Amino acid sequence: MSEQTASTTFRDNAPLYGVSAILLAAFAGLALFGAQPEERAAEQAATSGTPPPLASLPATDTALADDDSELAPKTARQRNDAVPFIDGPLGPAPPFAFAGDAASRARATECLALAAMAEAGSDDAGQRAVMQVVLNRVRHPAFPNTVCGVVFEGSQRRTGCQFTFTCDGSLSRRYSDGYWAISRKRAAEMLGGSVFGRVGNATHYHTDWVYPWWSDKLDKVAQVDTHLFFRWRGYWGGPRALSARYTGGEPTIASLTRASETEISVAELPASEAPRQPIVTIRSDKRVEGTIAAGPGAHFLALSGSEDPASLTARAEALCPGDSYCQVYGWTDGSAIPSALPLGREARRSLSFSYLAPRAGNPAVVYFDCTTYAGVDRARCLPRARN
After folding, report:
1. In 3D, which of 194, 23, 9, 1 has the Cα closest to residue 96?
2. What is the distance between the alpha carbons of residues 291 and 219, in angstroms, rounded to a whole number?
3. 8 A C-beta contact, residue 372 and residue 305
4. How far apart are the first and last CA of the chain?
């Protein structure tokens, strides 16, 4: 085509080109402004080179638990299957660079090993995947910058724990010496720079039989056994986001568990870390007027589901007088009531009521199954337990 012909063609079709350009711009604008806030933030970050504020991201204050998931396991698995994994290869997270004294290393090793055992059992891949998420969080500015701080994050807040096992009685579970030895070995390897590449930069996970509200708002990157792993989209899910400097200064497990009013077994801690006055759970299956006395600081209630929430709370208060540690659990399904702590997975999944008595100036912490007790403030709704 000659230059003159091309010029004539462009001139003759200029109005059409102009209309097309306007339409394309309009559609692009609709696509951007029709997106969810977190999607718009990610798009703006990609075009501007400036990461969005952390507060704009979904699931910034979400426990590694199955909160807000009311679906039956089969339905939840179907919903999870419908969320695709990200396309392309998944790059591994950078090796963790430990910086700290011997005491901090020992404490970090204990916290990392304990989280892995409580969350993934004895499975090697499952434990290392959990450890990788912990270490990714330690280096991410959205989370505490110590290993123990990450593991016990949220245990003092009304919104609950990041790792459920730190505040639901599971810390009273005892593990064999052999179990501890292999978990500590894996933790030491991860702190020494070993990387579990299968989960990349993941900072969140949940099991495949639940479907939390945030499950499709993050990048789904991997599955290890029944755990699905996720990272934030855009900059905050990339390798540059793991930029927080780790400097050691690990808190003691004893101080964290005392602060969170959590039961703990002294056998799980090295002697130097054991609290001076540990809470010891005395197992009992004695039933008294619909109550199982689970120990000096815990009571199990058989509920009808028709109780007034305020009256139920008053009943729990009556069971927990004084300033001693005291926890009350309740179930409407009588077959789900255990005879001792720690609560098993099914017992926690079917829990209808939970009450932690006020102590040492801290207010009471009360949660309800909001599918049974309607009208309860959403902040008081029980999260769904996983393990």
Report:
1. 194
2. 45
3. yes
4. 71
| Residues constituting the chain | 387
pLDDT of 247 reads: 86
Report the C-alpha gap between 237 and 220 in whole angstroms. 11
Edge-to-edge order in the sheet of strand 287-288 = 287-288, 291-295, 298-302, 327-331, 353-356, 365-368
What is the Cα–Cα distance from 173 to 192, expressed in whole angstroms?
A: 28
Return the minimum-mean-pLDDT range out of 32-46, 162-176, 313-327: 32-46
**Residue 223 buriedness (CB in 10 A; 0-12 / 13-18 / 19+):** middle
> The tokens of 25 are what?
């711009």
Distance CA 144, CA 155 (A): 13
Q: Which two tokens stand for residue 281?
A: 């759970």
**Cα–Cα distance for residue pair 374/387, rounded to 1 Å:** 26
* pLDDT greater than 90 at residue 177: no
What DSSP line would sit under 167-224, residue for residue?
A: TSSGGG----HHHHHHHHHHHHHHHTT---GGGTT--EEEETT---TTTTTSEEEEEE
pLDDT grade, residue 16 (50/70/90)? Answer: low
Asked which of 122-126, 155-159, 246-250, 322-326 is least confident by mean pLDDT, the reply is: 155-159
Structure tokens at 309: 């929430």
Contact criterion met (CB below 8 Å) for 378 and 354: no
- The residue ranges of every structural domain in the chain are 3-56, 73-273, 287-380
pLDDT single digits (tens) 88-119:
889 999 999 999 899 999 999 999 999 998 88
Contacts of 264 (CB under 8 A, 6+ apart): 171, 172, 253, 254, 257, 275, 278, 279
Q: What is the C-alpha to C-alpha distance for residues 115 and 97, in angstroms, rounded to an integer?
A: 19
Neighbouring C-beta atoms of residue 352, cutoff 10 Å: 23
Q: What is the pTM of this model?
A: 0.58
